[in-house]
Design a protein that fits this description.
Number of helices: 1
Largest sheet: 8 strands, antiparallel, barrel
Strand content: over 45%
Order of helices and strands: HEEEEEEEEEEEEE
Number of strands: 13
Radius of gyration: 24 Å
Shape: elongated
Distance between the termini: 31 Å
Strand order of the largest sheet: 1-4-5-6-7-9-10-13
Structural class: mainly beta
Length: 247
């Protein structure tokens, strides 16, 4: 529904600013890479000596553009986009000075989004242009979460018989997200642009909830129970090449 409303809004905006013939709307396709920047958000009822960690990777991004000029410098655009990323996530529990326990997951994300935005030309020389772009994004995110295991590291013989138990459940998928993007575009020559951008989600992605029990057979007093949620508010940097199919 959000995509439909976004499309209708853009169409009405274009109708109000001139002709609607095929030649008046520029169509392009783009492809490139993005790098996920993770901001992990943790809520734990019992969480001393515990933290969450996420490591993003380079992923892929592709878009289809429809662009309508409003004047000599400005234009409106709509861009359905798909991108894929995966990242390693870990819940790390520490017993200071003695031991560390690490629970790991691999999370794959498939995101379908629609952006409505505007561009503003800063400089132009012959067929070269430098322009700014900015827009608002609605996204539908699918995830695949896989537990990759638990590992231990010891720095003292005191806890050489640690035991641990974990239970977790993944968050429902898909999930609606909202965000914004901004970027800088360079028209290399007529028909080809290089665009670097930054995307930030206002909505956090709910990944999973978990409960753990960590203890030592030598000391019942050292048993630690933890429950919490793993959420992340993702942002991305990207570089794409856009090929315009018409003028």
């Amino acid at each position: 529904m959000k995509y439909i409303l976004t499309g209708i809004l853009l169409f009405l905006m274009l109708e109000g600013h001139g002709q609607t013939s095929t030649g008046s709307i520029r169509v392009g396709i783009s492809a490139g890479v993005n790098r996920q920047l993770l901001n992990t958000l943790n809520h734990a009822d019992y969480g001393e000596g515990e933290f969450l960690q996420g490591t993003g990777t380079v992923g892929f991004i592709g878009s289809v553009y429809g662009q309508k000029a409003l004047g000599n410098r400005t234009s409106l655009y709509i861009a359905p986009t798909f991108f894929y990323n995966h990242f390693d996530a870990a819940l790390i529990q520490t017993i200071p000075v003695y031991a560390e326990v690490r629970y790991g997951w691999l999370i794959k994300q498939y995101t379908y989004s629609a952006t409505v935005g505007a561009t503003y030309r800063l400089l132009a020389h012959k067929d070269k242009q430098l322009y700014l772009k900015a827009g608002l994004i609605n996204s539908l995110e699918y995830r695949n979460t896989r537990f990759t295991g638990v590992s231990f590291s010891f720095s003292s013989n005191r806890y050489n018989s640690i035991y641990t138990m974990m239970d977790y459940s993944t968050a429902p998928t898909p999930q609606w997200l909202s965000g914004a993007e901004a970027g800088l575009g360079l028209r290399l020559y007529d028909g080809v642009d290089l665009v670097v951008g930054y995307t930030h989600n206002f909505t956090s992605s709910r990944i999973l909830t978990y409960t753990t029990e960590l203890g030592s057979e030598q000391s019942a007093a050292d048993v630690r129970d933890t429950m919490g949620r793993f959420r992340t508010r993702n942002s991305y940097i990207s570089a794409q090449v856009t090929f315009w199919l018409n003028k």
